[in-house]
Amino acid sequence: MMISPWDRWYSTSCCLCCHVRTGTIILGVWYMLINAVVLLILLTALSDPEQYHLTSAELANDLDVMDDANMCIASAISLLMILICGMATYGAYKLRAAWIIPFFCYQIFDFALNTLVAVSIVVYPNTIQDYLQQLPDNFPYKEEIAALSNVCLVLMVLLFIGCILSFKAYLIACVWNCYRYVSGRGTSEILLYVTTNDTTVLLPPYDDSLSVPPKQPPPPYSTATA
């Protein structure tokens, strides 16, 4: 019997021997906390721009690092990420497969961006030296890192990005397995009722049927008195 690659890599357990549903909930909450902290920092910077405004004179440039428009865009992105992560957490907890799809798409998009960064480093290795020159003078170990050869820098950066990509690919697999588990769980809960005239009626899952309010009971029967 042939087994498809999707079924071969399918598993209901992830890191720390926990269930993929539990792992997706933890991952969603973790991403929500990170984006909430970033959003809080951005809102604080917008409320007090004089204290948190960084000019690129400190970074040996002539342009501002981040103006108010860019900070508003970053705040909107952080808010959107909180919404997407919340949807994934709710979908994994309530067994709603469709709510996990936006978070899975974000993971694919993030993985593709990191892959493009790795490809650009291989194609244009001199960009690492250009990036090091833009760092401030008080950056730790800047001179030691700049003294290394381009080949050594490229290998170090590619090794670092490769570890990140491997970890992100594992998280993508965990979320995908959670989506398959929730989808299969929802499909198995659908009941089939076959009538006598060979017609099939699909009944809703048991949880949905419990949420429907019961009908009012009929009035009590009273015997007629002569």
TrEMBL record:
UniProt-annotated location(s): Cell membrane; Cell projection; Endomembrane system; Endosome, Multivesicular body lumen
Record field: transmembrane: 25-46, 73-93, 100-125, 145-167
Main location: membrane
Keyword vocabulary terms for this entry: Cell membrane, Cell projection, Endosome, Lysosome, Membrane, Transmembrane, Transmembrane helix, Transport, Ubl conjugation
GO cellular component: cell projection; lysosomal membrane; multivesicular body membrane; plasma membrane
Extent of Pro residues compositional bias: 214-226
Keyword Transport carried by entry: yes
Record function comment: Required for optimal lysosomal function. Blocks EGF-stimulated EGFR intraluminal sorting and degradation. Conversely by binding with the phosphatidylinositol 4,5-bisphosphate, regulates its PIP5K1C interaction, inhibits HGS ubiquitination and relieves LAPTM4B inhibition of EGFR degradation. Recruits SLC3A2 and SLC7A5 (the Leu transporter) to the lysosome, promoting entry of leucine and other essential amino acid (EAA) into the lysosome, stimulating activation of proton-transporting vacuolar (V)-ATPase protein pump (V-ATPase) and hence mTORC1 activation.
Higher taxonomy: Eukaryota, Metazoa, Chordata, Craniata, Vertebrata
Subunit field text: Homooligomer; upon reaching the lysosomes. Interacts with MCOLN1. Interacts with NEDD4; may play a role in the lysosomal sorting of LAPTM4B; enhances HGS association with NEDD4; mediates inhibition of EGFR degradation. Interacts with PIP5K1C; promotes SNX5 association with LAPTM4B; kinase activity of PIP5K1C is required; interaction is regulated by phosphatidylinositol 4,5-bisphosphate generated by PIP5K1C. Interacts with HGS; promotes HGS ubiquitination. Interacts with SNX5.
Protein name: Lysosomal-associated transmembrane protein 4B
Organism: Seriola lalandi dorsalis
Keyword Transport: yes
PANTHER family linked: LYSOSOMAL-ASSOCIATED TRANSMEMBRANE PROTEIN, LYSOSOMAL-ASSOCIATED TRANSMEMBRANE PROTEIN 4B
Its membrane topology: Multi-pass membrane protein
Family listed: Belongs to the LAPTM4/LAPTM5 transporter family.
Taxonomy, superkingdom: Eukaryota
Ranges where the record places region Disordered: 207-226
